[in-house]
Design a protein that fits this description.
The chain is mainly alpha-helical. It has 15 helices and 6 strands.
């Protein structure tokens, strides 16, 4: 017992074999080997006895064995209950558990994070390319949430990667679909996909809001959809006003007795979970390669703003809560700049007319 010497593969090493007693608990035996020097072994034994006396040893010993997978298992119930994006988190967790699930949480470091990013960038997403920096940031943010939850529970003393920075690289898409391009996409789509695309293009609703739409939320007489807080990414309900062609498209949909979902998957009768394959077929047929379903939401915001609708009203229609997020969807292109320049010219002519003066010469002065 205590500190002893032993031989291993021709090397002299030291080990600690001690009984540690807490004031409020029974003794427990701790054995640790492969210590290089006697001084280190003696110091370790003294430190463990002090920690045990302070009531800290048992907690630290237990924490040393917690893995990322075990902490995720503890987080699952609370995440499923409180997080609207839970299905997305489950997908992100699969990558985290595949690469880091067996790592002890207390051993996590910047090295693990960098190795994780490197391995993920060598993988391919369903779109055929590597995951974007924003995707990696979302996965790391999920890992940090799991660790922070463990800290609040007292399972971890601290978050070992709390100071690891995110990549924060720009990931703003600028793809906007105009009416002509949407018409090609609509014609190239399968019959069951067409009304889904039309609702997304004309209302700016998120994909999950469209696919989970239930008939009880739709009022075709008033031409509105009522989204409760649990149906959308908001703490307040949202009313969506429908265009005439969306109302007409919804009127023509078959509606069986007891049907709950507006757009049921014909194979399951429940809401669609993934439109990737039929949407990709339509995109290829319409020769709109690179188009994402979410681009329809950006197209709605940009088209509405160009139609002269005030940005505050567009935000209310799309359900954007912050101006920063809204600006990511509101694409300003060269045509907007030209329109603005023409508007300034016309405004100048109006002022000249009101003042009773001739329009000023707008010719540039000759170069000297």
């Amino acid at each position: 017992m205590g500190v002893t010497k032993y031989q291993s593969y021709g090397r002299t090493l030291w080990k600690v074999d001690a009984w540690l007693v807490r004031p409020d608990g029974p003794p427990i035996r701790l054995r640790q080997s492969k210590i290089p020097t006697r001084e280190q072994a003696v110091a370790l034994e003294a430190k463990l006895k002090t920690d045990a006396f302070d009531g800290q040893f048992f907690e630290r010993h237990r924490l040393a064995t917690e893995t990322v997978a075990e902490l995720w298992a503890r987080y699952e119930d609370i995440g499923r209950r409180d997080n609207r994006s839970w299905p997305t988190d489950v997908g992100r967790a699969k990558h985290l558990l595949h690469h880091l699930g067996g790592v002890r949480a207390t051993a996590l470091s910047l090295r693990h994070v960098e190795e994780y990013r490197g391995r993920r960038l060598g993988e391919r997403t369903p779109r055929g390319g590597p995951p974007s920096p924003a995707t990696l940031d979302c996965e790391l943010e999920l890992l940090k949430r799991v660790l922070n939850y463990a800290v609040r529970l007292g399972t971890l003393p601290h978050n070992p990667i709390a100071d690891v920075r995110l990549l924060r690289k720009p990931n703003v898409r600028r793809v906007v679909v105009d009416e002509d391009a949407f018409g090609r996409l609509f014609e190239a789509s399968e019959e069951s996909l067409r009304p889904i695309l039309l609702v997304a293009f004309d209302t700016g609703m998120r994909q999950r809001e469209v696919l989970d739409l239930r008939w009880e939320q739709v009022d075709l007489r008033s031409g509105t959809i009522e989204l409760a807080p649990q149906d959308t990414k908001s703490e307040a309900p949202r009313r969506v006003v429908l265009t005439a062609r969306v109302v007409e498209a919804l009127r023509t949909l078959p509606r069986g007795i007891g049907a709950a979902f507006v757009f049921p998957n014909p194979k399951t009768g429940k809401a669609w979970q993934d439109l990737r394959k039929p949407f990709l077929r339509a995109v290829r047929k319409a020769k709109l390669d690179g188009l994402w379903f979410h681009d329809l939401r950006r197209s709605f915001v940009t088209r509405a703003r160009k139609a002269g609708i005030s940005e505050s009203v567009v935000m209310r229609m799309s359900g954007h809560k912050t101006r920063a997020v809204f600006d990511r969807y509101n694409v300003v292109d060269e045509s907007d700049l030209r329109i603005a320049a023409r508007a300034l010219e016309n405004h100048g002519r109006v002022l000249d007319t009101v003042a009773g003066s001739e329009p000023k010469n707008t010719k540039a002065p000759p170069r000297k």
